[in-house]
Each structure stands twice: as structure tokens, then as C-alpha cells.
Design brief:
heterodimer, A: alpha/beta, Rossmann fold, 2 domains, seven-stranded mixed beta sheet, B: alpha+beta, D-amino Acid Aminotransferase, Chain A, domain 1, 3 domains, seven-stranded antiparallel beta sheet, four-stranded antiparallel beta sheet, 19 strands
């Protein structure tokens, strides 16, 4: 099953004819993603990577039945590309572009209200359902199909943690990068809801970092909705100097709220198992799964009876 | 990009928001002349640094005469001002703002910021907040009120006036205050700001005046505001960090001895955490962006080698789609040749083109130790730094 992306995806790439767009679209095709079209203004009617290129998203959808878009458009035009995809009612839009102006994202969020689109990113590595479909730019070599859902604000750390999970014998259902920007599309809470209702996903890894309050909001959600599947979290930035932007625009800590400790405490109190270090996420998940299995057996009265 | 108080006030004035009469001075003599021009009974001499909490650190001085303004300016100019927000090394005061004193009846806090969670603009207001400011924390503070605004325009006049009344603005000033909000909103949207803060906004007999202002512009939008980009104060911005940014690298100087080379913000942050957990001290944070090419990365490695405190390089890389491992290994080789400084290098790299990278590494004849995982690499780097101290 997996979430967001599966084998029924028909992908179009906005900005496919650019250098990065062509390079990554080719990687996605190699991975087995069904790429049906490209969109680049003033290049309609040409072909790229043996796929037709259209003037705009609406034409591409009408001609190919595309149901997802990957956006590789440069920052100055990225928000218009997103709004175009939203207006064409594409169900899933994944934005890789970095450094999109924040007020442009406020306008995109307004366009999303009441729309039929789920937006992932910007500044996201994308969405991967291992062995089935890749939309994005992430490393795929260590990813393996399985039952762990991964949702993250950071691309490279996701690759690292995915490789730890695979090494621990734990494959992944879907990995989602929600992006490192302060204003972005779908967040931790929406991804957790999707993972909780996805039959393939048995547990979830959440990779957060300093800045913003999304981890705290997630903790609030888990407290009210209940932890329906085991969740492990890792929060990067415990030793970051305060009031500095650390790479991602969203990492600027606003003193007490944005720091790692308050995020860790909030998630812990909501029943999330915290991985003490970035290199221990695979192990933490493995232990948690063993414990919850034992707990389950105890409930059934199957332990303590030799 | 943060602006100085005087820059923010010039912008706000241009948008029709009243600020006190004032002049900028870079010498004590200029401050005296400026004070004479301002000509009020009470005059403020305010250090212009890019950090808040200046008053408690003695950076804001009230004087009564131009001669006293000169003395106050002399005491501030060229000195390092350490406030709770500057960090222990403080910031050098290169300018003072000489400003007329204002007699006021009431002080308020009024700010406009982008709220990540709701994806909208947040107008925040309430009683004046002394000392530190923190826009996100304020959203949750019980004494402050928030009104969410969209990008299409500020709310209707009645809504703005109701907001101003609710945050404690006296009835006589409610219409004026709503006007200030509208102008602040226009400045925010037209200039791609990420924060405009008036703290305090004073209510006087004759109207409203901004006593202190803080403004930040969105770095990602400066491409459409070339004129505003010129406002960046090179003295205040760490020259090294700016240089790194031009090479697609996010870099933050820290005060330890382990130079960190990592790709991606999350992996960079996690590496800093692991080094600290293992008892080491990072010399820097580094996030090599996916758009960086070999020579960009070599430049970034060069910045780490230029830091005399660095004793060991710790490379923690996950080769992704756009930036395979060999790109980063080549950069290490180029940087070592350019700088001619040889430091022990603890390496951990995996992912795309890992094996090619290993073959490339052999060409450079560098003193490297490769570790099989992150933690092993971190502990090895901490051990090397400890040995060489």
C-alpha cells in the first residue's frame, strides 16, 4: 500500500528540461516511476527523455492523465508553478526547489485551502515508496520495502536513518521529506495520520530538528488522537548555538519554543520513544518493536509460562 | 537579513509611520552636532548593533545636552557591546543613533511576522515587553493578542481598530494605530520582510511614535530587492559565513577544534550533537547544499582549514542523488593542495559513488582514517583532537 505514492502514480515534472530536472527525472525513470510528461513554458511540443513536454500543467494533465507533479522550477518562479499545479487539481505536488521566498509560500498556502492538492515541500527530498515509486531526489540504494514509515525535515539525515533501518532488517513503507522551510505543505501530523491508517505501515520514525513548533504540535496531536502505532523520534540540534540559522531556514530557534529539549520533552510525554543520538535510530526502533511485541505477548498471557 | 534600528526606522518613515527625529553619527563630534540639530531637552544616544537587549547592556543612554551626547557617543563608539543576544564576544558599535526624547503616556508592543504553522501573517500586539523579544514565543504569551492576516491585504478597518482597542490602545488613538498597522503591512509585503517589530510603540499626546524598531528581510527574496540587499552591514555579518553562502555552503563558526564537513542541514546538526555528546568541541557547523560543486565544497573545506583552532577534520557525508561521495572527496583533495595545511582527516562516507570516492581518495595521499559508521568517526575525531591539545 504505502502512503502518497504507489504504482498508480502518473508523474509529470515541472521544470523537466532544466539540468537538475532532467537529471533527476531520469533517475526516477530508472527507479521505475511512471513519468508521463514534462512541463516547461515555451518548450511545449518538444520531447525530453522520450516524454512529451507541454506548455502548461492543465494541457499535460488533459493529454496524459498525470496525477502527480514534481517541481524543479527555480525559486523565483516556483510558487507560480505550485499554484498552477494546484489550479489544475493535481492530487500530489512534490517540490524540491530550495530557497523559495517565504511570502510566496504564504500565497501558496492560501491557494491550497479548499483545493484537491496535497503539497510536499518545498525544500524537500521528496517521497519514496521503496521498490515501487520515487518522486524526488533522495538516495535510494539502501532503501528497502517494508513496514516502517519515515517522515523528516532533513534529506541527508533521512538517507542515513533509512540505511540504519535497512541494516537492522527493517524495511520502509514510505519515506516523506516535509522540507526544511518554515512555511511548507503537509507536515508531521498529516503524515502520521496517513501512516496510522496505512495497513502496510506498522511503526513510524519521525526526524525533527530545532526551529518552529511542529514537533510540539505533533505531540499535542498524539496526546489527543493517541499513539496508534509505535513512534520513534530523533531531534537534531541539541548542541546548536542559539539564535542562529543552521542551514535550513526553519531552524532559527526562537529561544524556549524552538529548542531541541522542549521538542524532545513534548514528544516523550506524548509516548514517543526518543532516539538518544542520530546513529542509534535503527537500534531504538528495533528495541521498541521487540518491547511492544513482548508487551503484546504478556497481554495474551503467553510469557512467564516456560 | 537583519537591519539596524536606524535602517528600519528610515524604511518605516518612508511608509508613513512616525519615528522620532534622529541622526546617525559615526564619531563623537558628529553625535554632538546631531544632538544640537535634534534640539530637544532630552536626547537618546543609541548604539546600532544587530542584537536586542541593548538598554540593559548600557547601549542606550539618555542625555540632556549636546556636550553630554558627545561624551555618551565616545563611550559607545568602537567598543564591544555585550548583550544577552550578542553572545559572549559582543558586537562592535560603529554607529550611534542620536534621537529626540519623546514624552509618552503609554507603551505597546506591535509586530508583524510570518507564522509557519498557519502559513499566514501574524499581527501580534499587547503591552510593551522589556528586554528580549521572541516573536514566536509571543504568539503564545497570555498578554499578547494575535490576528492572522492573509497575503491579499490587511483586514478591514473595523477589524484592525477592534484589534488595536483590544491590545490596549486608548480610544483617541485607535484609528491612527490601525493606520500604522496598514502601513506596516504594506512595507512587509512590498519589501518581503520576515519580521517588523515595534517595541515599544509609544502613545503620546499628539499621536503614535515608534521608539524602537526591529526589521528582518527574507534572504530568499533579496533577488527581487537588489537595493535592499545593499543594506546588509558587512561589519556585522560574519565575513566567513557570507563567503561560504556564495559557495552554496551554510557555515556557522563555533569555538571548538573539530572541523566538521557534512552535507545537509540535518546531518550537519546531528554531527555537531554527536561530537558534543562524545566530549568533543566542534569548530564549526557545515551544511553543504546539494547545489554545491566540487570547487564550492573545496572552498568550504578551505574555510575550515583557515581556522587556526581546527586540529582535525571530521567528514560525515551521505552521498545523495545530486551530490555523490566522490564530489566531496575530490573537494578534500583540492582544498588540501590549495591550502598546503595538512590535518588528520577522519572520514565516514556512504551512499552514491562510495566506491569511486574511495579510489579517488587514494590519489590525494591525505592522512585519512576511514570509519564504518558515524559514531566511530566522531569518537575517533574526538580522540585525535584530545591527543593534539
Amino acid at each position: 500500500m504505502a502512503i502518497l505514492v504507489n504504482d498508480s502514480i502518473r508523474l509529470l515534472c515541472q521544470g523537466m528540461t532544466g539540468w537538475a530536472g532532467a537529471y533527476h527525472t531520469n533517475r526516477m525513470i530508472q527507479y521505475g516511476t511512471n513519468v508521463v510528461a514534462g512541463v516547461t513554458p515555451r518548450k511545449g511540443g518538444t520531447t525530453c527523455l522520450e516524454r512529451p513536454v507541454f506548455e502548461n500543467v492543465a494541457e499535460a494533465v488533459a493529454a496524459t492523465g498525470a496525477n502527480a507533479s514534481a517541481v524543479f522550477v527555480p525559486p523565483a518562479h516556483a510558487s507560480s508553478a505550485m499554484i498552477e499545479a494546484i489550479e489544475a487539481e493535481i492530487p500530489l505536488v512534490v517540490v524540491v526547489t530550495e530557497r523559495v521566498p517565504v511570502l510566496d509560500m504564504v500565497r501558496v498556502r492560501e491557494a491550497l485551502k479548499g483545493s484537491r492538492t496535497r503539497l510536499v515541500g518545498p525544500n524537500s527530498q521528496g517521497v519514496l515508496s521503496p521498490g515501487i515509486c520515487q518522486i524526488g531526489v533522495m538516495a535510494t540504494d539502501r532503501a528497502q520495502q517494508g513496514t516502517i514509515g519515515v517522515v523528516s525535515r532533513s534529506a541527508s539525515l533521512t538517507s542515513e536513518i533509512v540505511s540504519q533501518l535497512t541494516a537492522a532488517g527493517l524495511g520502509q513503507s514510505t519515506t516523506v521529506g516535509i522540507g526544511g522551510d518554515a512555511v511548507h505543505g503537509i507536515g508531521f501530523v498529516e503524515c502520521l495520520k496517513l501512516f496510522f491508517s496505512d495497513p502496510q505501515t506498522e511503526s513510524v520514525v519521525l526526524i525533527g530538528e530545532i526551529g518552529g513548533t511542529e514537533e510540539q504540535d505533533t505531540a499535542e496531536f498524539l496526546k489527543s488522537a493517541g499513539i496508534q502505532k509505535p513512534v520513534v523520534a530523533f531531534i537534531a540540534g541539541r548542541h546548536a548555538p542559539p539564535a542562529r540559522r543552521m542551514g535550513h531556514a526553519g531552524t532559527l530557534t526562537m529561544r524556549d519554543k524552538g529548542n531541541a529539549e522542549s521538542k524532545i520533552e513534548a514528544l516523550r510525554s506524548a509516548g514517543v520513544r526518543i532516539s538518544p543520538s542520530a546513529h542509534l535510530v535503527g537500534e531504538t526502533m528495533k528495541n521498541l518493536l521487540v518491547e511492544s511485541k513482548l508487551g503484546h505477548l504478556e497481554k495474551l498471557g503467553m510469557t512467564n509460562q516456560h | 537579513m537583519n537591519l539596524h534600528e536606524f535602517q528600519a526606522k528610515r524604511i518605516l518613515s518612508a511608509y508613513g509611520i512616525p519615528c522620532p527625529a534622529g541622526e546617525i553619527a559615526i564619531t563623537a563630534d558628529e553625535a554632538e552636532t546631531a544632538a544640537r540639530q535634534v534640539g530637544t531637552d532630552e536626547i537618546f544616544v543609541k548604539a546600532q548593533i544587530l542584537a536586542g537587549s541593548r538598554a540593559i547592556a548600557g547601549g542606550v543612554r539618555a542625555v540632556q545636552t549636546p556636550a553630554a551626547a558627545k561624551i555618551a557617543a565616545k563611550a559607545l563608539l568602537g567598543k564591544r557591546l555585550v548583550t544577552p543576544q550578542t553572545g559572549p564576544s559582543g558586537q562592535i558599535v560603529r554607529r550611534v543613533l542620536v534621537e529626540s526624547g519623546i514624552r509618552f503616556e503609554q507603551q505597546l508592543y506591535l509586530a508583524l511576522a510570518v507564522d509557519g504553522a498557519s502559513g499566514s501573517l501574524a499581527l501580534i500586539g499587547g503591552p510593551h515587553i522589556a528586554g528580549e523579544s521572541d516573536e514566536r514565543g509571543h504568539l503564545e504569551s497570555p498578554t499578547l493578542r494575535t490576528l492572522f492576516l492573509d497575503s491579499k491585504g490587511p483586514a478591514k478597518d473595523e477589524a484592525l481598530e477592534a484589534f488595536c482597542g483590544a491590545i490596549g490602545v486608548d480610544q483617541r488613538h485607535v484609528t491612527d494605530c490601525a493606520g500604522i498597522v496598514r502601513n506596516m503591512y504594506r512595507a512587509f509585503v512590498e519589501l518581503d520582510a520576515s519580521l517588523i517589530e515595534m517595541n515599544p510603540l509609544a502613545l503620546t499626546e499628539t499621536g503614535l511614535v515608534v521608539l524602537d524598531a526591529k526589521m528582518a528581510l527574507d534572504d530568499n527574496a533579496l533577488f527581487r530587492h537588489r537595493d535592499l540587499a545593499e543594506l546588509r552591514d558587512r561589519d556585522e555579518m560574519d565575513e566567513i559565513e557570507l563567503d561560504a553562502q556564495r559557495h552554496q555552503i551554510n557555515f556557522v563558526q563555533m569555538d571548538g577544534d573539530i572541523g566538521i564537513i557534512a552535507n545537509g542541514a540535518g546531518l550537519g546538526l546531528a554531527t555537531v550533537d554527536m561530537v558534543c555528546d562524545a566530549g568533543g568541541r566542534p569548530a564549526n557547523f557545515m551544511d553543504i547544499r546539494t547545489t554545491a560543486k566540487t570547487l564550492d565544497i573545496a572552498h568550504g573545506v578551505g574555510l575550515v582549514l583557515d581556522n587556526p583552532k581546527t586540529k582535525v577534520l571530521l567528514v560525515n557525508v551521505y552521498g545523495g542523488g545530486m551530490q555523490p561521495c566522490d564530489t566531496i572527496i575530490d573537494a578534500l583533495g583540492v582544498a588540501a593542495r590549495r591550502k598546503g595545511r595538512v590535518l588528520p582527516i577522519i572520514l565516514r562516507f556512504t551512499g552514491n559513488n562510495e566506491n569511486t570516492a574511495r579510489m579517488r581518495l587514494a590519489n590525494y595521499n591525505l592522512p585519512t582514517t576511514e570509519c564504518k559508521d558515524m559514531w566511530q568517526a566522531v569518537t575517533a575525531a574526538v580522540a585525535v583532537a584530545g591527543r593534539n591539545s
